[in-house]
Amino acid sequence: MESIIQKIKENIADVLNKEEIVIDSITFEREGKYNFLRIVLDASGGIDLDTIVKATNLINPILDKLDLIEEEYILDVLSKERGNE
To answer: Which CATH superfamily is 2-79 part of?
Structure first.
């Protein structure tokens, strides 16, 4: 799975970088009966919900085209936890 995650990262990084969004982490996890592909994003100043939606819309077609994961999964794009600043 690490090689698949690396390929995903390589294929989405440039598109996100153009929007000044960086990838913090990518994980593939099973919770209960569901698989989640979690992509945690960050940007200077943080990321709002509109940016998450925009990033999801950029990432989705790339993942569909790559078709690297055989199992069904839920794409979960979220912002990096910033804690109390």
So the answer is: RimP-like superfamily, N-terminal (3.30.300.70)
CA separation, residue 16 to residues 5, 24, 30, 32, 85 (Å): 16, 12, 25, 30, 25
Predicted TM-score (pTM) of this structure: 0.88
d(Cα 64, Cα 14) in Å, to the nearest integer?
A: 17
Terminal-residue alpha carbon distance, the chain: 34
pLDDT digits (tens, 9 = 90+) for 14-73: 999 999 999 999 999 999 999 999 999 999 888 999 999 999 999 999 999 999 999 999
How far, in Å, CA of 61 to CA of 44, rounded?
Answer: 25
